[in-house]
Every structure is written in C-alpha cells, then in structure tokens.
C-alpha cells in the first residue's frame, strides 16, 4: 500500500510538461512565466498577495489620491463652454516710428508714413501722355 500511495503522489508530477533548461533559457519571457506557473501551480497559489509597506501618514494621502477621480461625466454643455470660451489675446508691442514719431506696431510699416508716400485711390491719377509714339 505504501508503494501505491507513493506512485499516486508521483503521478500528477508525470502529467506536468517537462521542459529542459536550454529550452527555458531560449524561450521568451512570457512563455517562461507561463511554464513556471504550469510547473509550480501549488507554489504560486500558496503565495500571499503583495503587501506594500507604506508608512501610516502616507496611507491617508494614498487614499485621497485613489479617490481623486471624477464622480460624473462632464456634460456636453460644459465641454462646449470650455472650448468656446474667449482666449486671452496676445499683447501688441508698440514703438514710435523713427521717421514721423507716430506710434506704430513693431515690425510693421508705419501707416502714417505709408499714406503720405502712396497716393490715395480716390485721388485723380496723373497719366503721363507721351506725344512720341
């Protein structure tokens, strides 16, 4: 009877797949983890859950971090309000025109100087007529 009990105890071990060491080293990480679970199912089931040693004062903060999630879905109207809200305008940099002294935008031609140099579109144009043709 003792021999049959030992044979029965060894029988589940024979049902397990046998993997040689070189195959384990050449296999991928996922396959090796899977094969370890197949080879040692009782050991993996017997291990307790991972226990993190977090200090007590950090535990309270950790609870608040885990609970800091939205309670309800943001409504469509709130999303639209945020999207369509007025954005801050960029500041306009002004300087004085070196030619006429009038304020103008930086890196832009002075409107006062430009209007004095270019004839107005409503003013009569001087058409040059040459008698030589």
Automatic annotation (TrEMBL):
One of its GO terms (molecular function) is structural constituent of ribosome. Keywords: Mitochondrion, Ribonucleoprotein, Ribosomal protein, Transit peptide. Pfam families: Ribosomal_L32p (PF01783). One of its GO terms (biological process) is translation. Its main location: mitochondrion. It is found in: Mitochondrion. GO terms for cellular component: mitochondrial large ribosomal subunit. Belongs to the bacterial ribosomal protein bL32 family. NCBIfam families: rpmF_bact. HAMAP family: Ribosomal_bL32. This is Large ribosomal subunit protein bL32m.
């Amino acid at each position: 009877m003792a021999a049959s009990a030992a044979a029965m105890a060894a029988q589940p071990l024979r049902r397990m797949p046998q993997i040689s060491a070189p195959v384990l080293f050449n296999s991928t990480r996922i396959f090796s983890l899977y094969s370890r679970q197949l080879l040692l199912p009782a050991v993996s089931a017997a291990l307790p859950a991972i226990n993190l040693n977090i200090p007590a004062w950090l535990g309270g903060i950790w609870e608040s971090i885990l609970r800091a999630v939205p309670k309800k879905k943001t409504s469509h109207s709130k999303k639209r309000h945020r999207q369509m809200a007025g954005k801050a305008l960029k500041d306009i940099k002004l300087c004085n025109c070196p030619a006429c002294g009038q304020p103008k935008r930086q890196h832009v031609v002075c409107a006062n100087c430009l209007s004095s140099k270019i004839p107005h579109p409503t003013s009569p144009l001087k058409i040059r007529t040459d008698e030589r043709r």
